[in-house]
Amino acid sequence: MSRYRYHLFLCTNERPSDHPRGSCLSRGAGPLLDIVKEEAVRAGAPGPFRSNRSGCLDACEDGPVLAVYPDGVYYRVTNREEIARVMKEHLVEGRVVPELQIPNPRPARPS
Ligand code: FES
User: Where do the H-state alpha helices sit in 14-109?
Assistant: First the structure.
């Protein structure tokens, strides 16, 4: 059983500016975690709830990446309005936001 009803991971990985994949930090992820927390509270997201910074989630080209677990849905979020939509529609109303979803993140590498 999951410890949290929702556990969100915002990628804040940083790479050199000339890296071919870029990074979520260079795409503006830096200030977004505070907004995630604020908008989750504003929306009344069900708890227990937690949001954390993360390293690379392997969807770099589509970043900034916000992953919603336990559902395993990846979103590209760039501003408060988009984050507010994910908090309200996914966390509160329980439906994926297709306009913001990263549809086909790379398959996970075998361990
Ligand atoms: S750098 Fe954010 S998903 Fe890879």
Answer: 32-43, 80-85
Rounded to the nearest whole angstrom, what is the distance from the C-alpha of residue 66 to the centroid of ligand 1? Answer: 10
**Domain extent listing, the chain:** 6-92
Q: Is the CB of 56 under 6 A from ligand 1?
A: yes
pLDDT tens string 36-54: 999 999 999 998 999 999 9
Determine the Cα–Cα distance for residues 60 and 56; give it in Å rounded to an integer: 7
Is the CB of residue 25 below 6 angstroms from any atom belonging to ligand 1?
A: no
Q: Measured in angstroms, how far is the CA atom of residue 4 from the centroid of ligand 1?
A: 23
- For the segment 70-105, what is each residue's pLDDT rounded down to a tens digit? 999 999 999 999 999 999 999 999 999 999 999 876
pTM of the model: 0.93
Do 63 and 76 meet the contact criterion of CB atoms below 8 Å apart?
yes
Residue 35 Cβ inside 6 Å of ligand 1? The answer reads no
6-92: which CATH topology? Glutaredoxin (3.40.30)
